[in-house]
Amino acid sequence: MARPAVAEINLKNIQANFKLASSFAPAGKTLAVVKANAYGHGAARVAQHLAQDAEVFAVACIEEALALRKAGLQQPILLLEGFFEAAELEVIAQEGFWTAVHRQEQLDQLARSVLAKPLCVWLKIDTGMHRLGFSPEQAIKAYNDLLNMPHVKQVVVMSHLANADDSLAPGASVPSQVAQLPEFFLNPGIELSIANSAAILSQPTALRHWQRPGIMLYGSCPLAIANQHSNRLRPAMTLKSQVIATRWVEPGESVGYGGRFVAERRTRVGTVAMGYADGYPRQAAEGTPVLVDGQRTQLIGRVSMDMLTLDLTNLPDADVGSEVEFWGEKLSANEVAAHCDTIAYHLFTGVTDRVPRTYIE
Ligand SMILES: *Cc1c(COP(=O)(O)O)cnc(C)c1O
């Protein structure tokens, strides 16, 4: 028998989430962000399943894009961080990839290169995230320089939002970031892309020609406060395993490494085949929720590399072989993440290769 740890991926839910994302800007276009192995869901399978609906995909780097070509995907694939060295440009042109350009050196390298096929370039503008992109002052010149390059056939202007998920966060608000864009780019003849998932779900002013949903495709709400739109998202990944041993511990006895959990009452402990080497976070606090045969209980003790321990005291029917769900359709990854001092993005992308992915079409 195989180790029972598995991540079950519901591709129908991803497709429904993509359709939901596309419905917000019916006149615009929606690309599917499948970077980081489709947020841990398996980029090849996810992209193949979305190939009927999504016209364009987006990844972080050329390695991820080439893996999708190898899997048979024929659509354009946008490199969200552009190229890291000029040598990539030839491959980008040959493979029909689209590239971001976020700094002057990239623009210069592009200007100097001789390419077999013309490119679509996404010009990144820094409107307040302060991570990548041309300043608003430099952006118009960069845009015109790109338009004048014979091997550039299309330019899309992109900016990324720092706080679309939380309107009360300190730092640049969505309206102030949008206002940073030079008027020049508001000309309807210029293709503009601002919205990530959180903006698609909550910031209508950020909806432009191109939307770039990532996390919402995987069914997780990125908003600090869910709304009626995010409530329609369907979780795509269910991380599960099974109880592999049970025992009783007496008051005063501890469980696991470091004895973090000390029983206050007679406690029935369930040991589960899931650990931090599978991507279940070691940071998970005492009391992190878990489902056993669909019923809620909680983590006790520290997560170890290959195992973790649960409180089964109130679940007398649970035993070896009982199914354990760590997050998924019945237990939100956001709720679990809150107990682990992290976010659902991190939980999903953290699921390691040791955990087989199984797919529901
Ligand atoms: C990852 C990424 C996205 C998708 O963000 P989500 O919050 O997952 O929707 C969009 N745009 C850029 C530039 C990104 O890097």
What would you note in describing this structure?
- This protein has 361 residues and is α/β, with parallel strands linked by helices.
- It is 25% helix and 23% strand.
- The chain has eleven helices and 19 strands.
- Strands 1, 11, 14, 15, 16, 17, 18 and 19 form an eight-stranded mixed beta sheet that branches. A seven-stranded parallel beta sheet has the order 3-4-5-6-7-8-9. It has a two-stranded parallel ribbon with strand order 2-10.
- The protein is elongated.
- Pyridoxal-5'-phosphate binds next to helix 9.
How do the helices and strands line up, and which of them pair or pack?
Elements: E1 6-10, H1 11-23, E2 29-30, E3 32-33, H2 35-39, H3 43-50, E4 57-59, H4 62-70, E5 77-79, H5 88-95, E6 97-101, H6 104-112, E7 119-124, H7 136-147, E8 152-158, H8 174-180, E9 191-193, H9 197-202, E10 210-211, E11 237-249, E12 254-255, E13 261-262, E14 267-272, E15 289-292, E16 295-298, E17 308-311, E18 323-327, H10 333-339, H11 344-350, E19 357-360
Parallel strand pairs: 1-19, 2-10, 3-4, 4-5, 5-6, 6-7, 7-8, 8-9
Antiparallel strand pairs: 1-11, 11-14, 11-18, 12-13, 14-17, 15-16, 15-18
Bound molecules: pyridoxal-5'-phosphate.
Residues 33, 35, 80, 160, 196-198, 212-216, 222 line the site of pyridoxal-5'-phosphate (PLP).
- Detail the poorly predicted runs: none
| Overall 3D form | elongated
Ligand kinds: pyridoxal-5'-phosphate
Kindly state the number of beta strands. 19
Mean pLDDT over the full residue set: 97
Strand content: 15-25%
Helix and strand sequence: EHEEHHEHEHEHEHEHEHEEEEEEEEEHHE
Q: Distance N terminus to C terminus?
A: 25 Å
